[in-house]
Write a structure and sequence with these properties.
Helix content: 40-55%
Order of helices and strands: HEEEHEHHEHHHHHHHHEEHEEEEHHEEHH
Strand order of the largest sheet: 3-2-1-4-5
Shape: elongated
Largest sheet: 5 strands, mixed
Length: 426
């Protein structure tokens, strides 16, 4: 192996490390990509020509001594997660302690090696695209080669920088707490038909509720009316917010957002909408599941406040921590499931079919990401997925503005009533 320590060093002065994604990709295109995978026999390295297997105690120095000026990639589960103090079956993928990884990251930078980590959720796609059957060809050499081929082929693949710390920051913990509250509220609403048991809504929106909900319990209007008359009620303020403001909501949305979540007839009349997805978006901003004095659960109309900020979340925080739109997230929560699994796939398939490309093979069967890549449908998929993400962001921002207007109006009304009170409201 040729030592490449001086590949990118400038003669006129010390090298300045450029760890940008653009530089990472430039090196990949120049044939300077090293990939790695960890397994029972050690760490397998693949440089595009040969594979090498080294022990966990030797591999760091070998990479630093031989691959200066290269790009380097490995699965996040191996090089982006530290070995825990308490070893479990799921932690066997981690060879190194936090201090060892952080030192290695710094040494990589000093050696002019750019590290980017791949999401473990993408491993099946990477393997299938590279021609390996995970059920038959699973071995560490194939995995290292598959990562190399995939990154060399797709420069838009989602990669992450190595972490700067392995301590969970307060922002992430805050996201966990808010997401737990969202899960509770959404599950409570889902069990009760997303407003199908709310007495205030059934009396006004029965036809649309019937078109919006599914399942045996809410299969037709008669069943919904029967529950209503029998007193089987569930108060759902976020659902009320959506139904009672439908006209304003659709009037303030773009055609792209309306196409993503709202359904019109041939007369361009609104007949229904995708309640699980719309409710999921609103849940980041409103609604806590709680019990009344009689012990009956309901979802209230309080706005969801970030404790650290004292205000509702903005899109950047919600996208990353509440909806979890990242391949590196392990557990996205109910909102993420509603939006990505139940919403995004159908929207992307529908839009792609309009362009003459079939992504949906049956009512509940879609092409895998690997099949899309092999069929040349990746760019179309990415374009339509981006349109769906833009629609979510637009609805989120609209809901935030509307709730902010509502809260400001409530404050103004409260102050006005207080000033008129004879009690003084001191």
């Amino acid at each position: 192996m040729i030592n490449t320590n001086k590949v990118f060093q400038k003669e006129e002065g010390p090298r300045v490390f450029n760890g940008s994604l653009a530089e990472f990709q430039r090196r990949v295109k120049a044939g300077k990509l090293l990939s790695a995978d960890c397994g029972k026999k050690g760490v397998v390295l693949y440089d595009g020509t040969e594979t090498f297997t080294l022990g966990p105690g030797d591999v760091f120095s070998y990479i630093l001594d031989n691959y200066s000026g290269w790009s380097f990639s490995c699965e996040n589960a191996h090089l982006g997660v530290a070995r825990p103090e308490k070893i479990t079956s799921s932690s066997l993928a981690q060879y190194w302690w936090a201090e060892e990884l952080l030192d290695f990251y710094q040494n990589l930078e000093d050696a002019d090696i750019i590290l980017r980590l791949t999401p473990q959720q993408s491993t099946p796609t990477i393997q299938a695209f590279s021609g390996y059957d995970p059920s038959k060809d699973k071995n560490d050499e194939n995995d290292a080669k598959a990562i190399h081929k995939y990154i060399s082929t797709f420069d838009r693949f989602c990669l992450r920088k190595p972490p700067t710390s392995f301590n969970e920051d307060e922002v992430r913990k805050e996201g966990y707490r808010m997401k737990d509250a969202m899960n509770c509220a959404i599950n409570s609403s889902k069990t009760n038909g997303y407003g199908a048991k709310d007495p205030s809504l059934v009396s006004q929106f029965l036809d649309m509720i019937n078109r919006n909900v599914s399942g045996v319990e809410f299969g037709n209007k008669d069943l919904i009316e029967k529950m209503y008359k029998n007193g089987d009620h569930f108060v759902d303020y976020p659902a009320r917010f959506i139904y009672n403001n439908l006209n304003e909501i659709v009037s303030r949305l773009s055609d792209n957002a309306k196409e993503a979540f709202f359904i019109y007839n041939k007369k361009e009349e609104l007949v229904s909408f995708k309640m699980p997805q719309v409710y999921a978006i609103l849940s980041a901003l409103m609604g806590e599941a709680e019990s009344n004095d009689e012990g009956k659960v309901f979802v209230n109309d309080s706005v969801r406040i970030r404790e650290s900020q004292g205000e509702m979340a903005y899109w950047k925080f919600a996208k990353k921590h509440l909806y979890c739109f990242s391949p590196f997230h392990q557990k996205g929560g109910v909102a993420a499931s509603n939006l990505k699994f139940h919403g995004q796939r159908h929207f992307v398939a529908k839009k792609s079919e309009e362009d003459g490309v079939l992504f949906k093979l049956a009512p509940s069967k879609f092409k895998t990401k690997a099949e899309l890549l092999l069929d040349g449908g990746n760019e179309l998929f990415s374009k339509n997925r981006a349109a769906y993400m833009k629609a979510i962001q637009e609805v989120f921002n609209l809901f935030r503005d509307m709730l902010l207007e509502r809260e400001n109006n409530r404050k103004t009304t409260s102050i006005h009533q207080c000033s008129k009170s004879t009690s003084g409201c001191q």
